[in-house]
Write a structure and sequence with these properties.
The chain is globular. Strands 1, 2, 5, 6, 7, 8, 9, 10, 11, 12 and 13 form an eleven-stranded mixed sheet that branches. Strands 3-4 form a two-stranded antiparallel sheet. 33% of the residues lie in helices and 14% in strands. With 395 residues, the protein is α/β, with parallel strands linked by helices.
Length: 395
């Protein structure tokens, strides 16, 4: 039974290729080698925050204006008061209750403002090699390079979050690279994506399994957190479909370890594999990726995204998973009318991006800014003490 479920659950596509020089190789706890890539977003040199590309209808601030926008202000102006998206939100903002997207979009600005912008059109996000990332850490004390916060060195408190992306079933790194680059460009975030054992360049490492997937996402997180020294609160987990399994597992595990990640985005998730086809009422022996059992232990803000016309994973799986999340961690979900399972069509992408930005602005970036301010304050105090001690010694 278990082998049959695995053969249906895991359907790797024919492997696609990435430039070998851009692949970061990881080794999981079973000794399996899996590929990954890191996409770095352009950042504001003063603040270290990610720069977002404008949506259709948004106008970047003029280069002559050196001031950053205050909290709560839009980072781009919108012509005629409209975004040009052709979508609206029908919002029921009551403690994480469902929001269904349809029609034409209006923006709620009653929350922490978007990431502050460098006064120029954003450049393209870049894929980085492991050597480039490690050199950046060595020379700047953090991934991303550059200087901010008064040019302090050695402060690894980036305000551009890093998304750890777990892809869907019939995908691999080559398939998802354009989508990940799009997310990095539009959201102003770094993206770290990896392949599961048995997928893509790791097809020679054995057949995929739930155990390997959990080991794979743990290896990816360990690389970010320990090798690149990106703190847990700066890492967001994004799991699409099959990827919701390893993402839920890791979100619960980091919370249990006392180092909860900064956020969790679940795109077309399922309660468990068996429950997609059979309403069992409980987790049966042999079931896989029982997200419903991990979700109650997540202690990070959770955003659910699901299409109401999903014919592969029923839409109500997200609704029911939302009910299992502890109330303070429920972000307002995005349920998109008439969207299916496999694609975020061009017609809904502006809405999709805007809602992800709202999630970042409300639940993630304020924490990163506060942490950075605290670290800079501590560093300033320490430097003052050093100066005082030197002054006393010179007398």
């Amino acid at each position: 039974m278990g082998d049959m479920i695995s053969s249906l659950l895991f359907q790797p596509p024919p492997p696609t290729r990435l430039k070998e020089s851009k692949v970061i190789w990881l080794t999981n706890s079973y000794g399996k080698r899996i590929p990954a890539f890191f996409i770095e977003c352009p950042k504001d040199e003063r603040t270290g925050e990610g720069i977002r590309a404008p949506l259709t209808g948004e106008t970047p601030p003029p280069p002559s204006n050196p001031k950053h926008l205050p909290g709560g202000a839009s980072q781009y102006s919108k012509g005629s008061g409209k975004s040009g998206m052709g979508h609206t939100l029908s919002s029921n903002n009551s403690g994480g209750k469902a929001t269904t997207a349809t029609g034409s979009n209006t923006t709620n600005n009653n929350h922490e403002g978007p990431m502050q912008q460098q006064q120029q059109v954003p450049s393209t996000p870049q894929i980085r090699t492991s050597k480039e990332l490690e050199m950046s850490l060595l020379h700047h004390g953090r991934v991303g390079g550059g200087s901010y916060g008064g040019g302090t060195k050695g402060v690894n408190s980036p305000c551009a979050p890093t998304i750890l992306y777990s892809h869907a079933n019939a995908e691999d790194l080559g398939n998802i690279y354009p989508w990940c680059k799009f997310l990095s460009k539009m959201l102003g975030v770094n993206i770290f994506a990896y392949d599961y054992t048995g997928y893509g360049l790791a097809t020679d490492q054995g057949d995929p399994s739930e155990e390997y997937c959990f080991a794979d996402v743990t290896a990816a997180y360990t690389y970010l957190n320990q090798t690149l020294q990106i703190p847990a609160h700066s890492i967001l987990l994004y799991g699409r479909s099959l990827g919701s399994g390893p993402s839920c597992f890791l979100a619960a595990k980091t919370a249990e370890d006392g180092e909860a990640v900064g956020g969790l985005i679940l795109h077309a998730p399922f309660l468990s594999v068996y429950r997609i086809v059979l309403e069992s009422g409980c987790t049966l022996p042999g079931d896989r990726f029982a997200n419903v059992d991990y979700a109650p232990f997540v202690r990070s803000p959770v955003l659910f995204i699901h299409g109401t016309k999903d014919s592969i994973v029923p839409f109500n799986h997200s609704e029911r998973l939302l009910d299992t999340i502890v109330e303070p961690y429920r972000a307002e979900p995005l349920f998109i009318k008439d969207m299916g399972h496999n694609n975020v069509h061009a017609s809904v992408r502006p809405l999709f991006v805007e809602r992800l930005r709202e999630y970042l602005d409300r639940h993630v970036l304020p924490v990163l800014r506060e942490r950075r301010k605290h670290e800079e304050s501590m560093r300033s105090r320490m430097m003052n003490r050093v100066r005082s001690a030197r002054l006393q010694q010179s007398r």
